[in-house]
Design a protein that fits this description.
With 272 residues, this protein is of the alpha/beta class. It has 10 helices and 9 strands. Helix 1 crosses helix 2.
Length: 272
């Protein structure tokens, strides 16, 4: 089963982070204004294309680990971005066909393509809601109203490359707590987050590009990212640069990116 909510008109007057991310991944679902902003960001950090790919790869691995090793059968993926195959539900349902997934994003372009790629297995279910993470109460109300997720059973909250777009004035730690609060014991938080720890000069430049383009960001230290997992049991290997989180093996050419190139911290925690 696949369902979706009606959306609003596209705003193409300024870049959007989800569409810039689509460009970094080599997608086609973005506008010229998004491409221009992405190219400026890539001038500040040419490795940002690799960062985007490693972000995606972490989501795939974390989803598989939660399904195979922790019995998770439900996901709430916030900040979905433009659907790019294989998307989270396709990874989850390749392990457990009955997996149920709710996607949420605040860009109507994501909604435009949701039906094309979000095709569930017969046994499982997917839906898409247009909602903003900075209003977690409304978001969770919409999730519950969709009827896709069973809040009596564990749910994985997936926040990949999202929380660095939520700056301190929005109280990001309270947002994550509000999203986790209604989830039962055995649920999980899987997230990654850009950090300036490994290369402050470069990533401060990237932050400046995003902020000037209308998408303010706040890249955080390892200690600050760790705060999102307060009260959760981190699974191995803890919070590390995302290409080091349960890697499948070395690249085909035998090379490995440096932490400074990726600068994306990742972790998975289980709710007690």
């Amino acid at each position: 089963m696949t369902t979706r909510q009606p959306g609003r008109d596209l705003d193409t007057s300024r870049p959007h982070s989800a569409r810039m991310y689509d460009y970094f991944l080599g997608g086609k679902d973005h506008f010229e204004i998004d491409k221009e902003a992405a190219l400026v960001a890539s001038q500040a950090h040419p490795g940002i294309y690799l960062t985007a790919r490693e972000n995606r790869a972490f989501m795939h691995r974390a989803t598989r680990v939660l399904a195979e090793e922790h019995g998770i059968r439900q996901w709430l993926d916030i900040g979905t971005g433009i659907p790019t195959e294989p998307n989270l539900h396709q990874v989850a349902q390749s392990v457990v066909p009955e997996a149920r997934v709710v996607y949420a994003d605040n860009d109507p372009l994501v909604l435009k393509y949701a039906e094309r790629l979000m095709r569930s297995t017969v046994q499982g279910s997917t839906t898409y809601i247009e909602a903003d993470a900075t209003d977690p109460d409304s978001l969770m109300s919409a999730v519950e109203a969709s009827g896709v997720l069973d809040f009596e059973q564990p749910i994985a909250l997936s926040l990949n490359a999202l929380m660095h777009f939520i700056t301190d004035p929005h109280d990001p730690y309270s947002i994550v707590k509000r999203l986790l609060d209604p989830l039962p014991a055995g649920s999980a938080l899987a997230m990654n987050h850009c950090t300036p720890d490994f290369d402050p000069v470069t990533w401060n430049k990237v932050a400046e590009v995003y902020t000037k383009s209308g998408s303010p960001v706040q890249f955080r230290s390892h200690a600050d990212v760790s705060r999102f997992f307060d009260g959760l049991d981190l699974i191995e290997p803890g919070i590390v640069c995302c290409h080091r989180w349960r890697p499948k093996g070395p690249a085909a050419d035998g090379t490995e990116p440096t932490d400074a190139q990726i600068s994306l911290l990742a972790g998975v925690g289980i709710k007690r």
